[in-house]
Amino acid sequence: MDSAESPTKTQAGEDENYSLLCQAHEQFNNSEFDRCLELLLELETRGESSGPVLRHNRAVVSYHKTGCTQHSVLLKELESLTADADTPGEASSALSLKQGAAAATVARYNRAVIYYHRHMFGTALEKLAPLVARLEALEKAMAALVATLQLQLLLATNQLNRAEAFLDYLQYKLNLVATAPSSNPAEDQAAVASVSPPAATTSSLVATPGGAAVEGAVPGLGGSLQLLQLITLVLNRKPVVIQEDGSPEYAALKAQQYYIMKDFQMAAKQLMRINNDCTQAGTVTPQLSTCIANNMGVIHLRVRHYAIAAKFFQNALNFDQQLAKNLRQSALQTMSSARSCEILYNLGVAMLHLRRPKEAFQCFLVPVKQFHSNPRLWLRMAEACIMEHEAKIIEEDRQSQAGASSTSKPYAPQSAGVPEPTLEFATLCLRSALTLTQHYKTKFHMVAVSSEDVESPEPKDPTQESWRHPQDNNFCNPSKPVSLESLENMMAAIYAAHSFISLRLGDHVTALEMAEQLLACERLSDAHRLLGHMYAGEALMLMDKAAEARDHLDPTFVGTLNAFDFETRDWQLKSVDAAQNVVRYNLAVAMALQNELPQAKALLSNLNHALVGSKALALRRFIDLKMAGGTPS
User: Fold this and answer.
1) What is the mean pLDDT of the chain?
2) 3 state SS of 616
3) Mean pLDDT of 140-156
4) Which long-range contacts (CB under 8 A, 24 or more apart) does 279-286 make?
5) In whole angstroms, what is the distance from residue 475 CA to residue 371 CA?
6) How many whole angstroms separate alpha carbon 448 and alpha carbon 463?
7) Using an 8 Å Cβ cutoff, are 4 and 25 in contact?
8) In which band, very low, low, confident or very high, does the pLDDT at 427 lie, cut at 50, 70 and 90?
9) Which one, of 257, 274, 4, lies nearest residue 141 by Cα?
10) Distance (Å, rounded) from C-alpha 164 to C-alpha 288?
11) Exposed, middle or buried by CB within 10 Å (0-12, 13-18, 19+), for 386?
């Protein structure tokens, strides 16, 4: 445990009280919490004037005495201290007000620390805001603690632009961080995703000045801020030179930088080197093992090694479960190290690519409880439902062709409140995704970078709190901030999935509406443009509007589509030829509905792709029978 600053002697006539404070400080550092509490109680009975300080430190020592597990009790006491400082009594003296303000300052910080470790980052930012607002008025040691925690919270919530601006403010106004060394590469490469390094520092509870120690200031706090500065610059894709010091934090940050530069092989080698070095030194921890396994999975996911990625994510989950078997009985720092939600999110994506929708759906159920405002997560859940439904249809067709009876076990009766991978639940997911995405699109912040900003990256007025003005499109946590292209792709994917499900459920009006919304999207990819026309055409035919449907089924537009857009997607249409065959088949159906049987038959004669071969043959037989005057069944 790190020690706090030693108490200071404030008045010459309080030598005995000062001696007791020093003894309490020493007993706390030796983990003699019972003796420490006795000394604090003795100080209180002797009429020690710093009542709020003693009250605060007694609460923190009691918290440590319980093994740092009863954080809710400590949080309640800290809230009471803060409330008392905000509403002092009329008879309060100037000294007691000063003592109360000092205790409240540290109490606010400790409350934010507790929320940070509980992954309640938004609440932590809110509780820390009063201290950040008067950062310049705080003692330098306290200001450094507050700045470190604020920076960690901004990074944890993916507010990368604001974190970088906050660093500029700390450097130019408070002189708390040094300038990071930089290099001059030809161009700055963008990152598609990121590999998160271990936390730069463990945010610690601190004691009120002049009282017994709690868990003191982080040793080498300047180094912690410098590491956070490097992490911020790397995540913002700024050119920096990372000098490794032998610690896994700097080595992992180097792997992060390799990943952002798309040198995935070097990133993986760097992570394995960290694992080997720590194994030889005997310093491997469950936190480090979890981080390495998860990041190796992210790398393999990026290069489309989905099975290997899934294996790494499963290993990361095993390490994480060892770390936090029972979070209710875990210490606060252990609680903050648990990353099951993020890992399950990654594992669910890998399972989708492996076409294992049931497993993917179960993976997404856990993170959606924490990241319920993430539209991308709701879309992924809907995709798992669609994939499971289509797999069932294919299996039923296979069994019917083989003449075998269904051997699949039906779902056991479950409560209506238990989510299942059905199309009905997928509809709910897509409604949530669409509502959230439309809401975020109205608030989307367009970043405009002028040539002057590129030439002079420093803030124009670093003495002001300009760090509050930058905005990040970070509404898809735990994913990184969303670009305009990603937002539009997500909107298109939601409309396409919503239209498809509506067709499957027989809601043709909604299917047509979603298809039209899809076709109205800006920067629409060729693949999504094809889907929009296909779904709109099918919906119109099912609504007995075959003439209108034919406007969406013109096969000439398919020849203008980008073949690369089909070849790189994980779906059945792998080529423009396949797309041509599907569109021509649907056009033949529309012609048949309008009794243009010869034209439809001529169109079907050229369809030989495996995707539509059997369907085209069945439709030709239907047309032949109808042209012969028969009555097709």
Assistant:
1) 80
2) helix
3) 91
4) 283/248, 286/319, 286/320, 286/322, 286/323, 286/337
5) 10
6) 23
7) yes
8) very high
9) 4
10) 26
11) buried
Cα three-residue angle 309-313-317, rounded to 5 degrees: 170
Q: Which residue blocks in 199-327 are alpha helix, DSSP H?
A: 221-235, 248-260, 264-281, 286-302, 306-323
Tell me which residue of 538, 585, 574, 578 sits closest to 558, measured CA to CA.
Answer: 578
> Where residue 630 falls among pLDDT bands split at 50, 70, 90?
low
Least Cα distance to 68 among 376, 332, 357 occurs for 332
pLDDT for 257 equals 93
Q: How confident is the model at residue 177 (pLDDT cuts 50, 70, 90)?
A: low
Interatomic CA distance for residues 479 and 236, integer angstroms? 14
Q: What is the pLDDT of residues 539-581, one digit of tens each?
A: 999 999 999 999 998 888 887 877 777 766 767 777 888 888 8
User: DSSP assignment, residue 174?
Assistant: I
Report residue 296 as tokens.
Answer: 């190796």
Q: Are 440 and 379 in contact (CB under 8 A)?
A: no
Q: What SS3 state is found at 240? A: strand
User: What tokens appear for 26 in the block?
Assistant: 């020493």
Cα–Cα distance, 176 to 34 (Å, whole number)? 37
Determine the Cα–Cα distance for residues 99 and 95; give it in Å rounded to an integer.
6
pLDDT, tens digit, 9 for 90 and up, residues 444-474 = 887 544 334 444 444 445 445 667 777 888 8
**8 Å CB contact between 86 and 55:** no
Give the pLDDT confidence of 369-403 residue by residue, as tens digits.
989 999 999 999 999 999 999 999 888 878 877 76
Could you tell me the two tokens for 420?
């299942």
b (16+ CB within 10 A) / e for 191-216: beebbbbbbbbbbbbbbbbbbbbbbb
Residue type, 219: P
In one letter, which amino acid is 439?
H
Collapsed DSSP state (helix, strand, coil) of residue 218: coil
Burial 488-502 (b: 16+ CB within 10 A, else e): bbbbbbbbbbbbbbb
Contact 212, 57 (CB under 8 A): yes
Q: What whole-number distance in Å separates Cα of residue 279 and Cα of residue 292?
A: 12
Q: Encoding tokens for residue 13?
A: 């006539």
pLDDT (0 to 100) of residue 187: 29
Domain ranges of the chain: 553-633
- The residues near 196 (Cβ < 8 Å, ≥ 6 apart) are 256, 291, 295
Q: Specify the pLDDT at position 333.
A: 76
Q: How far is CA 322 from the centre of its chain?
A: 22
* Residue 23 pLDDT exceeds 50: yes
What phi, psi does 157 have (nearest 5°)?
-100, 15
Helices of type H across 354-507: 357-365, 367-370, 375-402, 423-442, 451-455, 484-504
The Cα 354–Cα 421 span in angstroms is: 16
Report the first-to-last Cα separation within the chain, whole angstroms: 81
CA 75 to chain centre: 26
Range with the lowest mean pLDDT among 93-97, 138-142, 232-236?
A: 93-97
- Whether residue 506 is predicted with pLDDT greater than 60 in this model: the reply is yes
pTM to 2 decimal places: 0.82
Say how far apart CA 285 and CA 5 lie, in whole Å. 28
Q: What is the pLDDT of residue 425?
A: 95
The answer to whether the beta carbons of residues 5 and 141 sit under 8 Å apart is yes
12, two tokens: 């010459």
